[in-house]
Amino acid sequence: MFLLNQSLIHAPSAGKVENYPFLDNLKIADVHLVLIPWNIFLALVPAILGAYILKRWSSRPLRDLSRGNSIRLGALLLLWLLFFPNSIYLITEARKILVYAPQGLPYNASVEYIWKVFMIFTYSLFGWIGFAISLGQIRRFIARVAGKTWSVAITVGLVPLGTLGTFLGLFNRWNIWEAATHPAFIVRDAIDHLTDPPRLKNIVVICAFLYLLYLIGELWFRLLPVLLSEKGKRRERADAA
Predict the structure, then answer these.
(1) How many independent structural domains does the chain possess?
(2) 3-state DSSP call for residue 162?
(3) Which of 32, 58, 171, 224 has the greatest number of CB atoms lying within 10 Å of its CB?
(4) Residue-number span of the structural domain to which 85 is assigned
(5) pLDDT, tens digit, 9 for 90 and up, residues 187-216
(6) Domain-located, residue 162
(7) Can you tell me the distance from the alpha carbon of 40 to that of 42, in angstroms, rounded to the nearest whole number?
């Protein structure tokens, strides 16, 4: 009965590109070209929201916020959390390489189509950028308004939440807005993922990789401004000489 009710209120194939033959044919290695800019945008939305939250709300401790500002900040953080799994989801688009990979060829690589690997990797790279930047912004925000200990604890906890959200979108095809319209069904699916040993094992392993990707991103995005600054200083010294 539960599955019947769920099928009546949630149609995973509704509005999908596959329902429109012309758009469905516009794809490379099972990646729909029409969805590339849209998915990149969704992956970068949490970075945009994180930048606004960090700039607008990190000037004072949380305890000093008025009731109205606390509600507005809470709504923004909830919106960020709903969009956050989109960046992780985009990383999973690299799975399309498995669809393209020719079977029976040496090393499963075709000289004619090896460029698709680089195309799909570049596409998925936007997910890593959005993931690393947005999570780093929220970590710095929490550190400023609640302290370093809270920022580390919340950052560690957000990665499993984001991974679970990605599973709900990838395997159950839930959309962001359905968190408001069908929360009970989404919670039921989330429990299924967390209580099924193979899926739980996958979530744990994926989280380990995401922690690594986040640390690499933090190091890179911190190092890049320093390198650019040093390069600028050297250029100024060269011009002065």
Answers:
(1) 1
(2) helix
(3) 32
(4) 19-240
(5) 999 999 999 999 999 999 999 999 999 999
(6) yes
(7) 5
